[in-house]
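Lab notebook: predicted structure, single chain.

Context: the supervisor wants predicted structures on file for every construct in the current expression panel, including those that have not yet been purified. This is the next one on the list. No modifications to the sequence; it matches the entry in the shared construct table.
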Amino acid sequence: VLVSCVLCVAEMRQIPRIFRREETLQQNYNTLDNDTESNSAAVTSTAPVNDDGEDRMSETSSLCSDEYDLVEDAETDKELYRTKHRLYLSDLARRCPEKSKSKSLVYQWNLITIATFYGLPVIQLVVTYQNVLNQTGNEDLCYYNFLCAHPWGLLSDFNHVFSNLGYVMLGSLFMMIVWRKEVLYIRFLQEHPGRDKKYGVPQFYGLFYAMGFALVMEGFMSGCYHICPNHSNFQFDTAFMYTIAILSMLKIYQFRHPDLHANAYKSFGALAFVIFVGVLGVVDSNLYFWIFFTLSYIVTVLLVTAQLYYRGQWKLDLNTPKRLWRGLHLDLVACRTSWTSEAGQRTLCEKLRGFWSVVRPHSLERFICLVFWNMINWLLAGYGATVLAKNAGSDFASFLLGILIINLLLYTKFYLVMKLRHGERILVQPLFYIIVSLLTWSGALYFFLAASTSWVLPPAESRHLNKECVMFNFYDNHDIWHFLSALSLFLSYMILLCLDDDLTNTPREKIPVF
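Prediction complete. Output recorded below exactly as produced.
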């Protein structure tokens, strides 16, 4: 925060210089010859004028192509760009920037509404738990680390609540950094009109604001959970971790697929289903639940695979089985024809070459990545169905969070590798964030695994895991996990915020989609 303030003060000192430079430019403009002014006046006089005397040409020039398509199949023509074998960002950024920006901002306001309605009952519940504990003295109600629990006021374990402050501070700082970058980008567009439609990755900040607010809410909800941690309210600690993981993956996808990006309502609907499954797994993870979860997991992976591979052109409806069968039948017929025609004259290599020309994927690179991604997720589903399903004391909420985190890491790694493969650069600033975040994530994972409580076990067995304070005689391993994970999430956010800054001056016709 102090570094950010120093930089802002240094920038504010440069503003008078900018104003003086603009005044000089304005004076130069005022010395233009009369011929230029007369030509401008002539052009203005020929423009259509409405009843209020305003220039309608200036109004129509501000419209986007989506707002005045006069041909009925114009939208279909735009869809055809997505069927190309090699896509560039110009093919998937044809929508009006203003419309895409407003669509992205919906995430921010929806999340604020959801957090309000979700957070108020949480406060009521944990306050009730704390009052019951204070009145009855039943210490088995809350799973504290009694060897490092410092009471303060009405709170029995103040240090574990207080250590969540880092999420709130760093989430707020990230939103301020995003706001500052957005202001600078708006100033840049005022000086260079039209750059937001032709150069660089489209800059939409709604998801970034939602990610920062989700980090703030994670600190708030985790603090509420640690007022009285137990089996019944563990989902309070993980709900916004799910949100952070899903929003981060959506943001990475939005970088290169701005026109195909899912709207906020569908995304939060999917998030609601994830939280619903997480609650079911915590309440009662019996055999029937694991069958339901495994099938839902596999079906979701297949649907996402089809959506990613066909670049948003694949749709799920009642005619999907018919289309799949028709496509499979045509491929089989083509393969049989390729294999049997001119059988006496063609060699085996020629037959195999003809067979491959029929069945090969139209995007081999995307196909290989999706196969690898499916293998990882199928292994995770198998691990849950064969190992965790047999263990009655398994922590399903952490397993579900692990699935989302693993997929986020895979997607981030894929994006970085593909940037380098296509000759793009990773600048010093994101590289610094990557290196430091790897260090902080490693430390955070170490302290997370060194748990001092476990609500999966009975209260008496959980107390055997209690450990002494390890930092300032006030914080334990879980507090340090709070500090390091908050910093790690902030650094991960900063990676995404500046990852594509190397493409600011690159035409979108040269930015590949992957």
